Amino acid sequence: MILQENGLVKLSQIIHDYCGLSYTDRLPMLKEKISKRLTELGLTYWEYCRYLNMKPLEWEVLVELLTINETYFYREENQLNECCSLVLPKIKEKKSDRPLRIWSAACSTGEEPYTLAMLIQETGVFPPGSVEIIATDINKKVLQKAKNGWYHHGSFAFRRIPENLLKKYFSDQNGGYQINHTTKKMVQFQHLNLLNHETVEQIGKVDVIFCRNVLIYFDQDTTKKVIHHLHRNLTPGGFLFLGHAESITDMALGFQKVDSGKTFYYRKEPDKDETVRCISG
């Protein structure tokens, strides 16, 4: 029994090193998530650790078991409204001919980046052709659903979306709703591990990052590593939106907190020659 428990600890360490998910203090939860898979393979924890090394594609199966993909359109609307009404006009002021670039990290089945694409069209601040939304996730299965842009009628994904947006940007097809072509074209989906510095760097410079409800699954060291990667990708003065339960205020990671009263988010410290102003002021 002790040997088995040590194997579970070892597996939790391997998972942490690969994608940052921290199960060291939640071993019973990890055990519950993977027990069926280990039974299918007929492997112990120790054997599964070796199996992951010999069969790298098994990581895709494991990631699907470990990641939580519950999301929906128009989630945390105060942040979305703040982004569209204050942040986008602020970015427009200092941009020349470059397109607006937004990164939706851990995008799951696509509801967040498609919501951003719809709302950007609604504001009219940037025309669709001058917008690039990069949407990434470590789970390849949910990315495929996101790329398809089709969601079942009974999906909880639509529980908060305003009726006018649903009618305007979706068509009724095959028992579900299909995102329209213009909106779909604004979003580029790709597989990405937030801990992989090289692939994160390939995203290039972006003006806004949404990385919501991800850091809650990381320990502090991993959080700092991920935020450092995001910081490098943001343009000076760019904006970072995290989940309401996530805070990096006391980590001294190169961000200024912006609190509008209705919500909060972060701004990357601008270049020294740029006058720092509170955008909500």
UniProtKB/TrEMBL annotation:
SMART domains: MeTrc. Its EC number is 2.1.1.80. One of its GO terms (molecular function) is protein-glutamate O-methyltransferase activity. The keyword Lipid metabolism does not apply. GO terms for biological process: methylation. It catalyses: L-glutamyl-[protein] + S-adenosyl-L-methionine = [protein]-L-glutamate 5-O-methyl ester + S-adenosyl-L-homocysteine. Residues 1-271 form the CheR-type methyltransferase domain. InterPro entries: Bact_Chemotaxis_MeTrfase, Chemotaxis_MeTrfase_CheR, CheR_C, CheR_MeTrfase, CheR_N_sf, SAM-dependent_MTases_sf. The keyword RNA-binding does not apply. Pfam families: CheR. Coiled coil: none annotated. Keywords: Methyltransferase, S-adenosyl-L-methionine, Transferase. This is protein-glutamate O-methyltransferase. It comes from Neobacillus ginsengisoli.
